[in-house]
Amino acid sequence: MMKNIYVGNLPNSTTEAALKDLFTPFGEVGAVKLIKDRYTGEPRGFGFVEMADSAAADTAINDLNGQSFEGSSLRVNEARPQENRR
Fold it and tell me: What is the CATH number of domain 1-52+77-81?
């Protein structure tokens, strides 16, 4: 089952390819999505990485949380489902 990972505190220069490369050593990476402002198109500093193996995802979360990436200290944890919006 795929596991979705939240990655925060990303520098604005981060690309989806760079984020995928960061997670690939831990296992198979599915989708990578950087979140951008819907009006300006500017990066919002966070994204999501989907990994195929739950154990590999847990290892990536533990190893990458707090690590330096392109000059920023990453916040990495399991993504939580978005609450229903009105």
Answer: 3.30.70.330
Q: Whole-angstrom Cα distance, residue 14 to residue 19?
A: 7
CA distance 12 to 62: 23
CA 14/CA 35 separation, integer angstroms: 11
Q: What's the pLDDT tens digit per position in 32-46?
A: 999 999 999 999 999
The model carries a pTM of: 0.91
Give, in order, the Cα–Cα distances in Å from 65 to each of 5, 39, 42, 58, 85.
Answer: 11, 30, 24, 11, 28
∠ at Cα 28 (58, 20), nearest 5°? 90
Give residue for tokens 């847990």.
58
Phi, psi of 23 (to 5 degrees): -90, -20
Any idea what DSSP says for residue 74?
Answer: -
